[in-house]
Amino acid sequence: MERVPNLTRDDAVSAVRNPLAFIAGRWTPQPRTVRRAAMAALVMAVIIVVTGGAVRLTGSGLGCPTWPTCTDDSLTTTRAMGFHGVIEFGNRMLTYVLCAAVGWAIVAARAQKPWRRGLTRLGWAQFWVVMGNAVLGGIVVLVGLNPYTVAAHFLLTTALIAVATVMWQRTREGDGQPRPLVGKAVQQLVWFLVVASVLLIAAGTVVTGAGPHAGDSAEVERIPLDWETVAKAHAVLAWIVVTLTFALWFVLKAVDAPKGPLHRTRDLFLVLLAQGVIGYVQYFTHLPEVLVGLHMLGSCLMWIGVLRVLLSLRERPETVSGRLPEAPVETASLTKA
User: Which of 82, 111, 256, 282 could pair covalently with 291 via S-S, beta carbons 3.0-4.6 A apart?
Assistant: First the structure.
């Protein structure tokens, strides 16, 4: 076992002034460690969505009726608050686990050699999104689960998943200039898919805000729309996303695109099919809580899948002595179609 050097007073001062630089000067993680750290942050971002959904679906949204404490007199849940208090307070505690995962990703990225500043910035971006969402979560409680703040809370977590996905992808590639693997027309088609997916997720929050699962047994404000009508609009957007995904897969096959974009498009299509089945079953069975929770998980997986398709359209090679490797890269285009 390698001996840990003794810390001097100067070391202690340096650690206080810039702890990340201090750690980076004494530890170099393996690339797989950095990838695992980024993956852990992404997984925790998905888990926090699922557990947040459990809070709403069990009617525990006001299990802790105030924030940042659980009650006016207690930081933690009390026995009198029962099951709902445990659920709500437990979800709050998971925020600290999420912070730890994001912090680990930041430390690992900062300590990697050579230092990749862009990777570290992505870690810090996650940290600030988590902090902002924690405050927004407190506001959600203080305003009595107002559906518009609940929707914003979910959408901000969706942004967190986007940043975490990008960071995870960046740990698996170099820092060279991006090189497109497909033509402009294919890239535009994928951006249409991304926009449609964002609209689909946003429409889902409206369905939630107008639907029967308000998040608490008390009288909670709802979005003044017929949730079944909104759900049908949501389904139309879902079919648009499915159609765009199938069209993308067909085009990628036609132009003989690299396997990366093709395989990720296939994976996304399978996730969408599963998500569609869950969506229709939950609609016709009057929104059972378990299926709604699975649908929320599917929403996260769909969003990750869409982003992975987008990120697969280019490659970023490693830099060698400040120069990019000169190996040519074949780029697929629609001229073959």
Answer: 282
